[in-house]
């Protein structure tokens, strides 16, 4: 069973180790079930062990929105290799994500295996349903994460010992997605719509991720439906009904200010449908797995301190292509990135060092915001929640789903997002309009690469290939422009690898029936 985690009712799920227990002396009552459930939730915010793997930065590294950056060419080289489509089976970043997901799946399977043995009191029926629904949904979430990164992964629905895995083979994408869809649909009626502790997920979050999965699966595999275990289908019309339900009945909506989304006002707000919570607890140090948001630490400007920002590691640098897309009228621009020029002109600021693939700007959504840090132990202790699925994302999914059946509604959904950004209405939207709006609205939040893959390999090469890069140095102040050589900024999408990562060599060594992904 490993470590069980306790919780308290606060603005995030507080996770702290308790006594080690075994399956034989656990899973007795509702309290045990809850502790086991929080053990699964713990893996949502697990973004570093031996290497740093925050979900948004890891996905965006492969996109055209940012460069990995960091302190030099060898700094987090595994992520740089994956981002440039040159990863190999020994890549530690891929191994850590694989490991994280299967630990969470093992915990989910164990709780679900034991569920019928747990005694719930007559007044605990709501908890009984909620906990089971959340365990099903979390299992589905982690399988979806594996499916998008690796595609061909083993599927198990029961608790396994370390020897059982040797007999497994990888499931086909159709079988894997059928199980994920079934888990999500089974979870939704069991989960609460509202009224649970902040940090736990509602049925609306499950619907939101099911919609994101529908968009990815049907786009990437050129299908018109998601498969289910019983042979039936989750269809395009089912997706439309679900997104309309979410838009009109969930209680979620857009915050008035885009800027507020990434402040404390945005945490657990109506804007956020699927939230992953973090903390800045005093006891967190380099010696343990911190509760802080590692994305924030990674993205902060190197060597810089001011009233606004603390010292970070200079990862996740926005590309010029992305920055050039924003008009000066777009209110999202200043909340998405901040320039080195602005940092150096801040009278309270001092000490800015260059990053590898320096572009003269830094991401500003998730970063080392000074007010988010633990004042006594700043490093790796930033309590900024990750807003994995926002309501604006749902509106834009709704627009894409409605595009061929109700273009006026599709246009309205896009314009609602644009209007908050201070932009004028579009008359009739196109698919390209929706994709552009998704890029501007969700930039550097971990969605762009998956959106690109949905439109095929030719589109991916068109968007992702960077060849004959033209440097943009700044003669007045080098930190305000590109630093490096063109080859540092160049990469080419490898269609032969189909957009996926290699199966970790450590897994191939342990499981003789596994086959490596094509292209590796």
Automatic annotation (TrEMBL):
Residues 347-520 form the RagB/SusD domain. Keywords: Cell outer membrane, Membrane, Signal. The keyword Translocase does not apply. It comes from the Bacteria. InterPro entries: SusD-like_N, SusD_RagB_dom, TPR-like_helical_dom_sf. GO terms for cellular component: cell outer membrane. It holds the Pfam family SusD-like_3. Residues 96-213 form the SusD-like N-terminal domain. It is found in: Cell outer membrane. Belongs to the SusD family. This is RagB/SusD family nutrient uptake outer membrane protein. It comes from Flammeovirga aprica JL-4. The lineage of its organism: Bacteria, Pseudomonadati, Bacteroidota, Cytophagia, Cytophagales.
């Amino acid at each position: 069973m490993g470590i069980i985690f306790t919780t308290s009712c606060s603005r995030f799920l507080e996770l702290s180790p308790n006594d080690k227990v075994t399956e034989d002396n656990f899973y007795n009552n509702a309290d045990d079930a809850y502790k086991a459930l929080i053990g699964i939730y713990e893996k949502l915010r697990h973004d570093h062990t031996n290497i740093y793997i925050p979900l948004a930065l890891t996905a965006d590294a492969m996109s055209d929105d940012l460069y990995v950056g960091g302190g030099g060419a060898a700094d987090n080289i595994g992520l740089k290799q994956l981002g440039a489509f040159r990863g190999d089976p020994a890549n530690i970043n891929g191994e850590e994500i694989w490991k994280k997901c299967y630990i969470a799946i093992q915990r989910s399977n164990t709780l679900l295996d034991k569920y019928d043995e747990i005694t719930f009191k007559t007044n605990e029926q709501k908890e009984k349903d909620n906990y089971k629904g959340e365990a099903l949904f979390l299992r589905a979430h982690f399988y979806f994460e594996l499916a998008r990164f690796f595609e061909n992964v083993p599927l198990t629905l029961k608790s396994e010992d370390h020897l059982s895995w040797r007999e497994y083979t990888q499931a086909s994408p159709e079988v894997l997605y059928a199980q994920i869809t079934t888990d999500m649909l089974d979870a939704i009626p069991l989960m609460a719509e509202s009224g649970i502790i902040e940090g736990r997920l509602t049925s609306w979050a499950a619907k939101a991720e099911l919609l994101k999965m529908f968009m990815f699966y049907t786009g990437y595999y050129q299908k018109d439906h998601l498969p289910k275990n019983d042979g039936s289908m989750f269809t395009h019309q089912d997706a439309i009904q679900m997104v309309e339900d979410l838009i009109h009945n969930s209680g979620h909506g857009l915050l008035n200010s885009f800027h507020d989304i990434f402040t404390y006002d945005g945490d657990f707000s109506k804007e956020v449908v699927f939230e992953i919570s973090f903390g800045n607890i005093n006891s967190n140090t380099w010696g343990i797995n911190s509760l802080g948001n590692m994305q924030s630490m990674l993205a902060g400007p190197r060597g810089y301190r001011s009233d606004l920002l603390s010292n970070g590691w200079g990862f996740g640098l926005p590309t010029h292509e992305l920055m050039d897309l924003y008009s000066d009228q777009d209110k999202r621009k200043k909340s998405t990135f901040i320039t080195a020029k602005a940092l150096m002109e801040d009278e309270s600021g001092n000490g800015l060092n260059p990053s590898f693939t320096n572009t003269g700007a830094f991401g500003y959504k998730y970063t080392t915001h000074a007010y988010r840090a633990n004042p006594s132990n700043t490093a790796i202790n930033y309590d900024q929640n990750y807003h994995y699925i926002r309501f604006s994302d749902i509106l834009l999914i709704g627009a894409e789903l409605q595009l061929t059946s109700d273009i006026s509604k599709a246009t309205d959904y896009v314009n609602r997002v644009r209007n908050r950004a201070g932009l004028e209405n579009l008359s009739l939207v196109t698919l390209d309009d929706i994709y552009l709006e998704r890029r501007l609205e969700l930039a550097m939040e971990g969605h762009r690469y998956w959106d690109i893959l949905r439109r095929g390999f030719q589109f991916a090469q068109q968007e992702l290939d960077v060849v004959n890069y033209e440097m943009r140095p700044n003669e007045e102040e080098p930190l305000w422009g590109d630093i490096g050589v063109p080859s540092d900024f160049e990469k080419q999408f490898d269609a032969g690898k189909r957009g996926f990562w290699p199966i970790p060599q450590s897994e191939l060594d342990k499981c003789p029936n596994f086959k490596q992904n094509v292209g590796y």
